[in-house]
């Protein structure tokens, strides 16, 4: 493999790593703190991503594409929106775990607006997050936030879908 291609592929990692080494040279405590934090983040990702990948592989094999198209595809309407919210609501894990799932949704023919709704709902309507929020901030705050966020997530999903389709139509002319 070409060294130039490898350097180009990993340039941001290499730049970040170089900056961390420079910081370590000038401030050993801060440098060690950066490397320890990075190590903990990598270990956390390695504990979450393998089970997610296994579940996604099973989902990809067990659930036929036509079901996704029927219930979350272009003609899914309210059902597609509801399923996008429900899948995100019961999801577990940090946001980076949603991206492999999103790749499966794209592969299965899910409507783009439903994918955007799923990603946004993952951030703002997860059950585990809501439980924490109710305990920390109260149910009134959580309820008001959901009343604002749920329509906002739907509007954002359709707005992004529209903008992407307009751009694609413009590029294909």
Structure in words:
- Its main location: membrane.
- The chain crosses the membrane at residues 12-30, 42-63, 78-105, 117-137, 143-164.
- Helix 2 (11-26) runs antiparallel to helix 3 (28-62), helix 5 (78-89) packs parallel to helix 7 and helix 6 (98-107) runs antiparallel to helix 7 (112-124).
- The protein has 2 domains: 1-54, no CATH class; 63-173, no CATH class.
- With 173 residues, it is an all-alpha fold.
- The radius of gyration is 20 Å and the shape is globular.
- The longest helix has 35 residues, at 28-62.
- The chain contains 9 helices and no strands.
- The model has no long low-confidence stretch (mean pLDDT 90).
- The two termini are 37 Å apart.
- 84% of the residues lie in helices and 0% in strands.
- The protein has helices spanning 3-9, 11-26, 28-62, 65-72, 78-89, 98-107, 112-124, 127-137, 139-172.
Features:
9 helices; mainly alpha; globular; 2 domains; single chain; 173 residues
Q: From N to C, what is the helix and strand string?
A: HHHHHHHHH
Average pLDDT works out at 90
Shape: globular
Number of domains: 2
What's the end-to-end separation, in Å?
37 Å
InterPro entries: DUF318 (IPR005524)
Pfam families: ArsP_1
Main location: membrane
Transmembrane segments: 12-30, 42-63, 78-105, 117-137, 143-164
What order do the helices and strands come in, and which of them pair?
Blueprint: H1 3-9, H2 11-26, H3 28-62, H4 65-72, H5 78-89, H6 98-107, H7 112-124, H8 127-137, H9 139-172
Helix pairs in contact: 2-3, 5-7, 6-7, 7-9, 8-9
Subcellular location: Cell membrane
InterPro entries: DUF318
Main location: membrane
